[in-house]
Design a protein that fits this description.
heterodimer; A: alpha+beta; Immunoglobulin-like; 5-stranded mixed beta sheet; 4-stranded antiparallel beta sheet; 6 helices; B: mainly beta; Porin; 16-stranded antiparallel β-barrel; 11% helix; 54% strand
Chain lengths: 279, 361
């Protein structure tokens, strides 16, 4: 009986091994991190000393193999939404007296010490290798030496706008309580500045592009869909014409839209709509 | 043997060799033993018991030591037991479009101690990593035992029980589950060890919650151990600021003649990703062929799906490893690993050749 059980169990184990063997994905439709490509293809180019490039070429494809999700070692999540906030100016958990990234000082940044293999505690990263080559580490060092600036690549690449609700020129009986914009790439909630978008209302029925008054809004990236941005007016919208305008400073997450690099003097109208008078 | 001679022997062994003290679960499957037969920690790994030392001296190696060489016991007096674990390696890694890397490194130097404060009732256990880097406490806990009933209570910092406690912490099942011998956690463990059964229930902070001051992890595992097979199930729930995480695992081992087979399948639901919950899966199949005494050939096939909702992103890993134990407490390993993943990722398609030297006490 025991022999029969052993035989069946060993067959099951061998079968499972053979089943799993040869199952590596062909990567079709995926970027180098194994994530689905955004519409129109993903960003590319050589590694440069800016955070977005480091995220794209190093942190996402290499580090997030382990450092992602709720079990990320040391609680250090290095996905694009969390990495900057958890790296720069944050004490390391292994040696709290050393910052993970100390702007301007790569030698005393724990990230560099772990990558170069001379950290005070623990193994060299990436755990088990292969380790980053000297040229790659030098670029990360340069980014830290330059002050470990916030990511700006998303701004330079920018986003294209897909669906917008309300759609352009919609005439609405009921005032919308929220507006939704869908982009072609994932947004970073932590980098959204309240000034990234604003809602302008026409004054006294004059055309919206005449003398607008701004309405305060809250910006939210919903859980489960980082490509969407929810714009919530902080006060009810009265009847009239409105337009939603993107005009963000270049260091925020929405600094480029539809090919226009936004600055304080540039703006892109995302939609216009009208809230009708109640009969 | 005097204490000074014991200490000298310990230092000599630690300095003369580089290696790892952990036995591997295949040995337990080959022999039909529970982990607690050979290790002080009931869940395996680390300091050896008297039986484990006798096994390492007389059963594991190809040849024993001359009778003129005093036997290592690990005991200092009646109350203290010590051990150690070193590992050094040379490896060469090749990946597409990347210059080959090769290096030698001292991977691990650990010392263990167990003080029987009240013999058979209360133990204090310490696992200290001395290298690489500065000293770091990996495990430090007190364990209250009830020898007559099989129950024990552990409190402090220790490794959580989940699946096969593999020597290779880079195995997909260990990385994906997030529970390995690189991730000690702080909490309590209620355990049960009786003939044919091993079970644990843990409540801990959650290793990934380090530094956050919030969250917790609950882990449970049960293993049925028979003469030539065993079957286990494990589950873990983590609450963290990043999101909740559930891990479920099934693992089994069986011996057929000279071959010990191991298998494990883990499924993870993790809400800590920016886009929401992601489901991950990992599996391990391993065969260990005891070619002759002191000689083992290990072949593993591993599978990893980093996101079940994304197609064509799976990875596999194949390993072949020859393990030789020429003398007691010394192991040599030479092996080759082949990773396969999506073609646009160079690291996912790397190849590794490695040579490891292990020594342990």
């Amino acid at each position: 009986m025991a022999t029969k059980q052993s035989f069946l169990l060993s067959c099951a184990l061998a079968g499972a091994a053979l089943t799993f063997g040869g199952c590596a994905g062909n990567g079709m439709g995926l970027d180098q991190s194994g994530r689905p490509l955004p519409a129109g293809g993903g960003g590319d180019g050589a590694l440069t000393a800016d955070f977005a490039s480091i995220q794209q070429h190093v942190l996402t494809p290499i580090c997030t193999v382990c450092h992602a999700g709720a079990a990320a070692p040391q609680g250090l999540r290095l996905d694009a939404s969390n990495s900057y906030a958890l790296l720069v100016g944050i004490p390391s958990t292994e040696v709290p007296s050393i910052l993970r990234v100390k702007p301007g000082d790569p030698d005393n940044s724990y990230l560099i010490q772990k990558l170069e293999g001379h950290a005070a505690v623990g193994a060299r990263m990436p755990f088990g290798g292969p380790y980053l080559d000297a040229a790659t580490i030098a670029i990360i060092r340069q980014w830290i030496t330059d002050g470990a600036q916030r990511p700006a690549a998303a701004a330079s690449r920018g986003f294209s706008v897909g669906t917008v609700v309300p759609a352009p020129d919609d005439m609405l009986v009921d005032a919308p309580t929220r507006l939704v914009i869908e982009f072609d790439g994932e947004l970073d909630q932590t980098r959204l500045d309240p000034s990234s978008l604003h809602l302008e209302a026409a004054v006294n029925g004059v055309a919206a592009d005449a003398v607008p008054s701004r309405r305060a809004v809250a910006l939210t990236v919903p859980t489960g869909n980082a490509r969407a941005l929810v714009v919530t007016p902080l006060s009810p919208l009265s009847p009239g014409r409105y337009r939603l305008v993107a005009g963000a400073p270049p260091d925020t997450g929405l600094a480029g839209i539809n090919g226009v690099r936004l600055g304080r003097d540039d703006a892109v109208v995302l939609t216009t709509f009208e809230v009708l008078e109640q009969p | 043997m005097s204490i000074s001679r014991l200490a000298f022997s310990a230092c000599w062994m630690l300095l003369a060799f580089a290696g790892a003290a952990r036995g591997e679960p295949y040995l337990a499957v080959q022999q039909g033993y529970a982990c607690s037969s050979c290790h002080v920690d009931p869940t395996g790994g680390g300091l050896r018991t008297d039986f484990g030392i006798v096994f390492a001296e007389n059963v594991l190696p190809a040849t024993g030591l001359p009778s003129s060489v005093p036997a290592w016991t690990g005991r200092i007096g009646d109350f203290l037991r010590i051990g150690g674990d070193l590992r050094a390696s040379w490896n060469r890694t090749e990946a597409p479009n990347t210059p080959a890397q090769q290096q030698s490194s001292l991977d691990q130097t650990r010392v263990y101690a167990d003080a029987a404060v009240i013999p058979d009732r209360l133990d204090v256990y310490l696992d200290e990593q001395l290298a690489p880097g500065n000293a770091r406490t990996m495990e430090a806990y007190a364990r209250l035992n009830s020898p007559t009933t099989g129950w024990y209570l552990k409190a402090g910092q220790f490794y959580l029980p989940f699946g096969w406690r593999l020597q290779d912490n880079t195995a997909f099942v260990r990385e994906v589950s997030g529970i390995s011998m690189t991730t000690p956690d702080t909490g309590i463990e209620l355990g049960f060890e009786r003939t044919g059964w091993s079970a644990q229930f843990d409540v801990s902070n959650g290793a990934a919650n380090a530094g956050t001051g919030s969250g917790h992890q609950v882990t449970a595992q049960a293993v049925r151990i028979a003469g030539n097979w065993r079957l286990g199930a494990a589950a873990s729930f983590t609450n963290s600021e990043a999101g909740n995480r559930n891990v479920e695992g099934l693992f089994a081992g069986v011996r057929t003649g000279p071959v010990a087979w191991l298998g494990e399948v883990d499924l993870v639901h993790d809400a800590g990703f920016p886009e929401g919950t992601r489901t991950l899966a990992a599996a391990l199949g391993e065969a260990n062929w005891a070619i002759a005494r002191g000689h083992n050939l290990k072949v593993t096939v591993e599978y990893y799906d980093p996101d079940r909702s994304v197609s064509q992103d799976q990875q596999t890993r194949y390993s072949a490893l020859y393990e030789m134990t020429p003398l007691p407490f010394v192991q040599l390993r030479v092996g080759y690993r082949r990773y396969r993943g999506i073609p646009q990722s160079d690291p996912e398609n790397r190849r590794q050749a490695f040579l490891e030297v292990h020594a342990f006490l």
